[in-house]
Structures are given as C-alpha cells and as structure tokens.
Prior knowledge:
Blueprint: E1 13-14, E2 20-21, H1 24-34, H2 46-73, H3 82-103, H4 112-127, H5 138-147, H6 151-156
Antiparallel strand pairs: 1-2
Helix pairs in contact: 2-3, 2-4, 3-5
Bound molecules: glutathione (GSH).
Amino acid sequence: MARGNPLVKIPTLLLDDGTSLFDSPVICEYLDQLSGAPRLFPAPGPARWSALRRQALADGLMDAAILQRYEQTLRPEALRWPDWIAGQAAKVTGALDAMEAEAAGYGAAFDIGHVACACALGYLDFRYDQLHWRNGRPALDAWFAAISRRPSMVATMPR
Ligand SMILES: N[C@@H](CCC(=O)N[C@@H](CS)C(=O)NCC(=O)O)C(=O)O
C-alpha cells in the first residue's frame, strides 16, 4: 500500500496504468465519472458545493471517530490523553448535530454527501453503538432508516 500512497492509508485505488488514487473523496469522484454520466457528484454550482460540504462533514466525523479508536486501542494506555479523546468526541457530536439540523431536508436525494453521511452513521452503529447517536436526533434517525433500505446500502452495511 505504501507504494501507491505515501500516506500509507486505505482506501488507495491502484489503476491498471500503474498510477494510484487516494483518498476516498478522490476515488469516489473517479468511480462516478467512469460511467460518463456522473450521478453522485453534481456539476459545479450550488448543488455541488452542498454535496461536497456534506461529504466533508461526514469525512470529518469519520476522521475524529477513527482517531479516537486508534488512541483507545493502539496507543499504550499510559500515553493516552483523555482531553484529546474528548475533543475528538466533541467533533463527532458536532457533526451529528449538524446532520440532524439538515436531515429533514435530505429527502430522497442521494448524492456523494448523502452517501458519506450514511457511511459514517453505519460506521458508528458498527463501532460506537454505545454512543447511541440516534438519541435526540429523530430526523437523522428517520433519514438513515429510510436510506438504509436502498439495495446499495443493504449490500455494503458494515457487519
Ligand atoms: N480521509 C481519508 C481517511 C483515510 C483513513 O484514515 N484511513 C485509515 C483506515 S482505518 C488508515 O488507513 N489509517 C492508517 C494510518 O493512519 O496510518 C479517506 O477518506 O480516505
């Protein structure tokens, strides 16, 4: 993996021509344009900025959730820093609250921002069930329940 990504992170996509793409937002946009008619990334304009903002919000939630997990599972216990962990947890809470404030407007739309939010919520169910993110967030709960019935979501839900 280090060969394809000097940051040594997944996901990294190795292309047939030997080049590589990272990180996940770049890989998603590449895959979306392969069809010739991108469906997840709107053309430049307000819809695109809104979708990319949502994607960045969900990516930021994921970064904060994963960094906390590294701190709590990989770092030697004596070196762990509770204040830093609390700071990352606050970012997750802030991102969830922002999603809750917007979720009623998500409707049935499904752009890259909705994909990223849904993936982040699926990850929280998988690794952070003790967080109970649904508590106090009825709009986000209802949206995620509905979006989770899409075949693509059913096929890829982390288990
Ligand atoms: N923003 C990046 C984050 C990628 C990321 O954090 N990947 C983790 C997966 S758990 C990783 O490879 N971590 C290894 C490391 O940080 O050394 C993306 O969405 O692709």
